[in-house]
Amino acid sequence: MPNIVQDQDVTVVELGAEYRGLDDPSGLIAKLLEAASAAEPAKMVLDLTATKYFDSQFVEVMIRTWKRLGERNGEMVLCGLSPFCADVIRILKLDTIWPTYETRAEAVAALAAE
Questions:
Q1: pLDDT at position 26 over 80
Q2: How far is CA 95 from CA 26, 86, 90, 91, 98, in A?
Q3: What's the pTM?
Q4: Which of 6, 59, 86, 111 is the least crowded, having the fewest Cβ atoms under 10 Å away?
């Protein structure tokens, strides 16, 4: 289950170790979309520091979350990508729409400054 916190007026979603598919018994999809709808201001960091693996279906969840924020003129950034996850984001060219940062502090600072 994700941990959702506020840090300098930025919503930070701390995700766990692995995300495979959209079989979602924990309600992750609903929680991410709800967080994107409720974020005030509409700025979100997905903290993937603990995440070692995600598949293409989870990428769809991230896209849906990003679009929900976009409906509110918001932004989403990623931080703490493992080498595998960074490769997935880079190969799919999602790094062109989602800025990535090494640390949560850098990601929050970037969004808080805007």
A1: no
A2: 27, 9, 6, 9, 5
A3: 0.91
A4: 6
